[in-house]
From TrEMBL:
CDD domains: 7tmA_OR51-like. One of its GO terms (cellular component) is membrane. The chain crosses the membrane at residues 26-48, 60-82, 94-120, 140-163, 211-229, 241-259, 271-291. Belongs to the G-protein coupled receptor 1 family. This is Olfactory receptor. It comes from Mus musculus (Mouse).
Amino acid sequence: MALFNVTHPASFLLTGIPGLESLHPWLAGPLCVMYAVALGANTVILQAVRVEPILHAPMYYFLSMLSFSDVAMSMATLPTVLRTFCFDARSIAFDACLVQMFLIHSFSMMESGILLAMSFDRYVAICNPLHYATVLTNEFIAGMGLAVTARSFITLFPLPFLIKRLPICKSNVLSHSYCLHPDMMKLACADITINSIYGLFVLVSTFGMDLLFIFLSYVLILRSVMAIASHEERLKALNTCVSHILAVLAFYVPMIGVSTVHRFGKHAPRYIHVLMSNVYLFVPPVLNPLIYSAKTKEIRRAIFRMFRRIKL
């Protein structure tokens, strides 16, 4: 026991929804449907962008990056979430939990960076349309994708090591059906100031700055749109941004909610923590492909043509 107090447990125990354990098998069905929608719809968009020449444009390249991050996020969480709810298999090895934590936070940061890149795409398309093709070249888009990916992995690389250095002896029971850094560090029986400060630094310097620059890009977009004389042209320009705005809201609102609950809702009921975390986990991957398919006629037509060729 003394050794356990200064090291870490061999495994963690994941948690579904406290107080509703008897309903977990019934909740597994909707969860499977949400995973199927997230994985299936995003894969369809990836395939459509790959095979349809009409979608070989900067906006759709960024959309394919967004779909890839959503697929990766879903794949990172699917094994533990479904095991917990379908089979009540709650145990996850310590190192496997670290890997899942790193992947979840990394793909989440990638999605934030991609949404920022998409806002830049909309800014150039509306505010400087004559230079759109010369600014957003394939090389530039690939460079932005690499930069977003590198930022995520480099920034979050220390997280597993910051957790591994902590003696975890308060408990080995996590609050969710997957592993998150704030959840894991709270189980330590040592000073977690470094973890807390680094987590806040990452949150502000990446997600916070991304959101700030997205906001500023739309301030400039609105200023440019208001200078357009024709009311119809204004609406047409703004309509090209609706899908991106909805995707930003679908991502940042749940993320801000779960961050707020983790940091300031210590006395909130546990089901509030679980609900916010699951909304943060499931909403963006499920809604993003539906939003873009519903609001972008080029994507709808490309998907229709793709399925028609498969049928033939």
